[in-house]
Amino acid sequence: MTELLNVAGLSIAARVAHRDLPLLADVDLTIGRGETVGVVGESGSGKTTLARSVVGLLERNVRVDGGSISLAGERIVAPGLDRTGRVRGSAVGMVFQDASRSLNPLMKVRTHLAEVLRRHVRDITKDEVERRSAEVLEQMRIADTGRVLDSYPHQLSGGLRQRVAIGLAVVTRPSLVIADECTTALDVTTQTKVVELFRTLVGELGIGLLFVTHDLMLASDLCDRIAVMNGGRVVEQGPALTVLDRPREDYTRRLLAAIPTWT
Ligand SMILES: Nc1ncnc2c1ncn2[C@@H]1O[C@H](COP(=O)(O)OP(=O)(O)OP(=O)(O)O)[C@@H](O)[C@H]1O
């Protein structure tokens, strides 16, 4: 499998009250084209910090101390180096927990998609914007694309809004998509549909997917490989079924034991 994302020995710290607080320590992670990798762990384990570091969306008091991140062989993050602006929203798409936060409430879906396309696709024509906007909604398995294009976010259901948010992330045809707890706010049925959609998209578009979730079962359902984080470190990493059936680390066993239906 061709390597797409390579996180090597990544260490990140936050400056708090004149002291450095380590957030990530020596994190290694790779994602291939067409591969889905789940990052799981309890709240505060560093999942979001890892996801945001790939797209340069770390807070201002946070900096990269060591290691690097490369995308398709190009180094985009290292201490003192931040080339994430070149790939954010174009080669790397992002979907966050709350679709309403990635969607502007004052903008119709049509305007939103057009804005993203015009920002990232040089010299795109009006016709091409129309064509690709409708096409991406069809890829999201949205039936009545005309109505959805002409809707404001609040006129859509939560599931539909998250589909539109995923559409916005993939409309620029990225090679990598980062999804951070993007199903957490949804009810179980809608969650299942969104997971199914991701599975299809990865297959159809051959993208790499970094799927952040606190839900180990959900990750094992969707992902080829899983990285388990604890205290800013990746404590265990491997094929999803191996991590689930034969966890090597006590921490992973404790995460599994915390799932009520897991016996
Ligand atoms: N800018 C910051 N300044 C100080 N501490 C921070 C900063 N950002 C994150 N942290 C701390 O780093 C730790 C990891 O946070 P992070 O959001 O990456 O974890 P997470 O696994 O995604 O958790 P959650 O599921 O709750 O979002 C937490 O203890 C958090 O409080």
UniProtKB/TrEMBL annotation:
Molecular function GO labels: ATP binding; ATP hydrolysis activity
One of the Pfam families matching this protein, by short name: ABC_tran
GO cellular component: plasma membrane
Keywords tagged on the record: ATP-binding, Cell membrane, Membrane, Nucleotide-binding, Transport
Annotated membrane topology: Peripheral membrane protein
Domain ABC transporter: 5-256
InterPro entries: AAA+_ATPase, ABC_Ni/Peptide_Import, ABC_transporter-like_ATP-bd, P-loop_NTPase
SMART domains, per the entry: AAA
Subcellular location: Cell membrane
Family designation: Belongs to the ABC transporter superfamily.
Annotated protein name in UniProt: Peptide/nickel transport system ATP-binding protein
